[in-house]
Amino acid sequence: MSIQKPQRRERRRPDRLSRDTVFSILSNQRRRHVLRYLDRNRGSASLRDLAERIAAWENDVPVSEVDYKQRKRVYTSLHQTHLPKLDEAGIVEYDRNRGTITLADRAADLEPYLATPDERDVPWWACYLGLSALAACLVAAAWLGVVSGLTAAGLIVALFAVVAGANAYLARRDRIDGDAVADAD
């Protein structure tokens, strides 16, 4: 007679998270802290380290000053509530037996909502300012006869088109809408 492990029931998940699910997940600061820590920690962590770091953030103290009660309070809520919810949504893989947490593929659906502007934004003003300076140099070169006026104009238009195209592409890619998350019906 052999003892068989109960097989983990496969959960069917839609391809994308609904907006309601995204906002429900991100409505809790501890879950946002989990995602932030995992992102900074190459996508994985132990429950103990995660609880300790989040307790430090919540109490505004260094990790070395987190006491047992602070760590235990966070550990318990992560273990019982937050990590199972993130695991159920397919955002993390939570191994309760080992106490390990790993980012799952669906975590990428939340990136547009979590990235701070300075992490995501290209300083387009600097691109366009530099491009304008380059255009002024091309106009001066055309005026001095170094290049033809038509060549200078063509280069200026082409350069602005490339930068504007890159700007439009990145703006569309980073847009927070149905492309990143499924609409809730």
Automatic annotation (TrEMBL):
Decide whether keyword Transmembrane is in the record: yes
Regions crossing the membrane = 122-144, 150-170
Which Pfam families does the annotation name? Answer: DUF7344
Q: Keywords in UniProt for this one? A: Membrane, Transmembrane, Transmembrane helix
Classification via InterPro entries: DUF7344 (IPR055768), WH-like_DNA-bd_sf (IPR036388)
Domain called DUF7344: residue spans = 23-102
Q: Which residues form a coiled coil?
A: none
In Swiss-Prot or TrEMBL terms, this protein is called ArsR family transcriptional regulator
Q: Give the originating organism.
A: Haloplanus rallus
